[in-house]
Design goal:
single chain, alpha+beta, eight-stranded mixed beta sheet, four-stranded antiparallel beta sheet, 20 helices, PhoD_2-like, PhoD-like_sf
Amino acid sequence: MDNAGWHAHRRAEKESQYYAAHGSHYGPVEQVGPIEESFIGGFYGHRPPTSPSSSIPPPIPPKDGMPYSPRTEYPPPTDGMPVPSIQQDTALPGHLRPPVPHQQPMNQPAFPSHAQPSIPTEQLTHLTAVERSKILKVARMEPHLQFMCGPLLKFDTIDSQHTWLGAALIVTADAGSMYEPHPRLSYEWDPDKLTPSTIRERSNGSRTGYPPSVQSSSSNPRNGNGHLSFDLGPHPADPHSTVLPGSPISTSASISTMADMPGPNAKREDSYGQDIWVYAGSGGTFTFWRFMIKVPLCDHEIEITYRINNGQAMNFYVPGRTQNMRWAAHSCNGFSSGINPDDFRGPGFQTGYDPLWVDLLSHHAETPFHALVGGGDQLYCDSLTREPELQGWVSKMKPEERKQFPLTEEIKTCVDRFFFNHYCQSFRRGAFARANSSIPMVNMLDDHDLVCFFDSIDGFGSYPDDMQQAPVFRHIGSRGYFFFLLFQCFINPDVDGLSDAPGKHVYQSLIFGEVGPYIRLPSHSFLVNMGPQTALLMLDCRAERRKDRICSPIEYDKVFQRIRTLPPTVEHLVVMLGVPIAYPRMVFLESTLESKFNPLVALGRNGSFGLSGFVNKFNADAELLDDLNDHWTARAHKQERNWLIEQMQKIAVAQRLRISFLSGDVHCAAVGVMKSLKASKKDADIPIGIDHRYMLNIVTSAIVNTPPPGGVLTMVNSLATKTHKTLHHADTDECMMPLFAKDTDGSSRRQNNGNLSFSLQVEREKGNGATLAYPALTPPPGWARA
């Protein structure tokens, strides 16, 4: 400690562990092991998170004035160590037998908003070994499968025959799994059974076509601080629970009910897995299994129960035939480098990733979502630069050296290893794992899904061509896109092909564009039927992106052609764009950072005055410039943006569609508005209902990541009031909606006129997982079809 260079020596010794030599074998920074069967479907055992002040997580607080259900505290599980889970078994002592879920009053929600009944561990010690084994019985798949990730659910579309189309995906370790016969997904439903949300909807006499907006119910109990609190109860695969086996642990508790009392019209289908890819790593080989699912819709919402190889029962919901889907959209599901997740971990949560996912699941438990729409950045890949084989590339200080760095087999191996491990870890973690196994996903990527290194490669595709063409850079982007298709869309282009002609691809919603300049695969957009009156366009804005272009003319043409095939019943088209299209401009900041005469950029490139962090270390441009270049409102994209908006206006008139945009990326909830320009300030606005130019851009805040700094929010807020004349030539005005205010009469707006309701759920306090709803409505088109 007396040595003046002691700290520097220790730091150098630690950093040297990340460096690799050619031909050497180094362990990855992130590597996952198989999931114990009792963990499948969510709440994979976390190691207790640490914080600077304490290594012990805070105690779980009382829920809504009631004590939290007693739970056995097991030590953190390790790979290869089985942990018991609760399963249904009717042969229990009478005093321990749980109430039968189907005896619950039909006008009450089946998922309780209070603590679940449970068995104290002390009481378990008074039972016989046989009784204890029955209570703690673990679901076993037969034949056995060794899970690495999943099950994950995907929603494709609803076809013209009113059939729900989707898929499930699991990743299994070949060592320890039995594939004779191939893995089987069994799913069942009973068209005669009504879900609690359907019963409430019918009893309230609400319109069935448009679902109510998802808001906190005033009838739910609140805790002592006045916040709505909802105990989700344990997941069926949560190993840390001693909840009674028959407790209603799903949204409608029908998993056990359907198994015990199938109705005369109950249906069951089997889907056998297709092995769509095999990953070969140092730990063995791992197979990706895809199961296609088809469910004919009924006249009301139904619950689908599914199992893999007769293992743990899971469930999801599909809408009624005449019902528009309830769906939740999210973005930015991860933390940027330098952010401490524990800062967002409120009392009772295991990690900072969980609070808002638990809030979303609580809404899902009250009124189930039919789809989970990922608007981009479903995971963050910042830690890729810590992989040992990449240190030679990362350590190059000059951009030219990094551009010319060779792509070795070692780098190729480490990139695939990172994406495989990182996806498995991220998609099987905590509350997000419960969501993606119980709400079918519809995902589109953004830059963090591809690559983002310490926030220094932000906006893949928005760099100069020579940087994007660099061998290592391009390979990382290409493999990131491949793993996005694999894990988030359940697609392998080598297996599924590159044709979107009718009947040629497993997914009907898919639209192929042009082969990208850097990705080397065509863009993958999706036009999804979300119900009789609503459609969702997931526009791929990454695969074809260049610094001066976001989407190619070929992609636009094919997307517009597909939109023209929408049935005339569709009134709302929601267009998902990863980056907002109607958002406050920062042209002055973009111009300043691009200027060759900017003294801060010059000093940063020379490393003078400690300003090296002001420039991007990958191409020596000003930091933040890559992010600004990524925006639709950037100078390089402004013409394309304006053209796209005008095309959407033409489509709105021709097909009588109310068009809305949905975005994420900026970590700041907002609503942009485009509408017809008034001839003079004295003229009244055109009524929204008949204004085909009226379009909202709903911008979601991050479901996990940190919000922008206060100074940035202040700047954006001040820019929001600025008048933009960009589209005045097209008789279009732009502004930002004053979102965080109630109606003038203080009442909440109701949906009874065909409006499409968006509800931005804003966290009340950081890390506490309780949100407040801020609604925004867009009306149906009030003009005649052209």
